[in-house]
Amino acid sequence: xxxxxxxxxxxxxxxxxxxxxxxxxQNLIGLSREPPQSDNQAxxxxxxxxxxxxxxxxxxxxxxxALGTLRYHLQSLEKQGRIASERHESFRYFFLVSKYSEYxxxxxxxxxxxxxxxxxxxxxERKIPTLKDIVKNIKISYAAARWHLDRLADLEMIFELxxxxxxxxxxSANIDVVIGFLKEFYFDEWNTWTNKIVNxxxxxxxxx
Length: 208
Description:
- It is built from ten helices and five strands, in the order ααβααββααααββαα.
- The longest helix is centred in the N-terminal third of the chain and has 32 residues, at 2-33.
- α5 packs across α9 (175-185) and α6 (114-126) crosses α8 (142-154).
- The strands form two sheets. A three-stranded antiparallel beta sheet has the order 1-3-2, sandwiched between helices. The chain has a two-stranded antiparallel sheet with strand order 4-5.
- The protein is α+β, with helices and mostly antiparallel strands.
- The chain has three domains: 1-33; 37-99, Arc Repressor Mutant, subunit A; 105-207, Arc Repressor Mutant, subunit A (Orthogonal Bundle), CATH 1.10.10.10.
């Protein structure tokens, strides 16, 4: 009986060791599947090259990285002096260091959000539209329009004019810089917008 007990004990010990070895092997395999840190950081740098002024949540989705992993690499890249971040309102935006001036970073932040970008482009198109014009053409609420206009004014992209009881908005941004970034990072939208303006101009010419 003592012999049987020893055999059972030995078998249990072997099974425990085998289980631990299996778990360790799986952990090693799992680690081998994780991209090296340098690969993740290279991906982040390439992403910011193509998508300047991106914020954390969008980068997480586009890069497919866990939020903690992404934060770790972004902090590491900032410490290395390879990227910089700026907070504006509730968002933190990330840029490659030395690639853009402070003014250019503000333009990129203004263009990043779709309706803020559309609002800016509409003001460029209409010169000095009213709040009502913006609401009607962008198809957003008055509250949303004011939020986007306040954001653009805060970034020094537009300023407000008083015209009797109306508020009008005019571009103060450097048009060449705005157009350059629209062409580079939002080409499809830029192309659609310019075609619309050309067609509108041709239509007016034909009527005249």
